[in-house]
Target: ATPase AAA
Amino acid sequence: MTLMNPPLHTDDPYTRMLSPRGVPVDQLVSVLQKEIRRGRVDNAVLAAYEMHTTSPEVAAHLWRRLRVIAVEDVGMGAPLAPVLLRELRADYEASGGTDWMQVVHAVRYLATAPKDRTSAEHADYVRTVVDSGELRVEVPDYALCVHTRAGRELGRGLRQWWENGARVADEHPGADHTYRDELIRRAEVGP
Model:
């Protein structure tokens, strides 16, 4: 199994850029992410400020990194973090990039949120094993339903869909299936 390596530093334009106070931007990106991962709010905010004040391009990269961190490092610890980040960035951009407080709130939120890297781990694992040919997607029989050509060729229609294809795991305990039952009845009788 071959693991994916990050791009060479020579391919990263941020290795050649400095913040107004002389800190290499690639290091600021690393500080931002590592400090958020460790819940070290103050230094994460300082790194974000350096990025915010370097240039509009670096400020845009700051928001891209925060979006990645929301999924890669916070993940299922706060699954709606990407939605919050999108709103904070929209407010920031509406201010013409001057509303620094939106950045601070985003960094503080991510740094103090519960962390869960399992989405990133899962993504890296799947890319690795699929690209190496070790695994491939399985098409279970229940996926061959009225919505696929193969399902139609097998004669599967709406009744099979409602009885099998639409089945969910971890169903809410109070789910009322009155409408599903009526749809199954109608599928039996026909139009």
Notes: The chain is about 60% helix and 0% strand. Residues 56-74 form the longest helix (19 residues). The chain has two domains: 9-120, 141-189. Residues 71 and 118 are 9 Å apart (CA to CA).
